[in-house]
Amino acid sequence: MLPARSDILCCVNVHLQYGRSGLDVNLAGRNVTMIEPRYVTGLENEAAAFRESVRSPQGTRPLRDLIGSGDRVAVLVPDRTRPFPSDRVLPWLFQELAHVPAERVTVINGTGSHRVNTPAELEAMLGREVFRRYRVVNHNAHDPSTLAPAGKRKDGATVWLNREYVEADRRIILGFIEPHFMAGFSGGYKAVFPGVAAIDAIMHYHGAAIIGDPRSTWGVLEGNPTQALVRACGSLLPVDFCINVTLNRDRRITRFFCGEVLAAHEAGCAFSRQMAMVPCPRRFPVVVTTNGGYPLDQNLYQGVKGMSAAAQVVEDGGLIVAACEC
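RE: above sequence
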């Protein structure tokens, strides 16, 4: 991300976020400017902070007051390419919804256009108890039989979303917020769109006319056509509750932003902007970057985000060195 702190250093060893273990780079004898998000200490008691946030949410009633015991509930979580701590958050969520029978709940793995995850991967993501107690489904953007119409875009095209999500009585979406190279910030309605959309809608979302717009960029929400499409398509069906988090580099939760989708998301984006972004005073001839380590650097496609961040601060004709485990 763009810098929240920068220092001129000499004779340094830099530890890059790379895979699970990191990568050490010796830059001895060179003038180095370190650009990194401001480090925020993780919450002392994540579970207590979660309960406080869902019981005093932004823009809506407490979570457990919104969900009835007879409701069919869809709980939408990010897939394994995102560092959202589902294995920690979901047990707290289901404690809060203890009045809802497990058979009334479906956990949907929001893969977008990514491959479906294996049972072993899902168990590791969600935690053994949640995986074995609740019904868990992979979204598959390529399988029309698993999709249902949710509404129409402004251009009249029908938007198809995951059938389990569409047919639920209540919808809870989970995600994490950080600056995003197209949508301005991740989180919010992005869990729905493109998270559980059909492949044609996802391809439209990634189309050059939208993502090529100069306002489709880091940290921009207002006037961003990518974020506008996310919100328009993600809100075609009511979302009853949004649970968003911010994370530090240790993958600890630094804040919860819960409640009505736009209220929670915009509060989280404001916090993320303060922690992860400040203006960079100049461009550099060489920029060394990563995509934040596992699970964000599992493949080259995700690694493009780190390259895009570096492209904001590299000189014309300069060099970007990207470390991505793939």
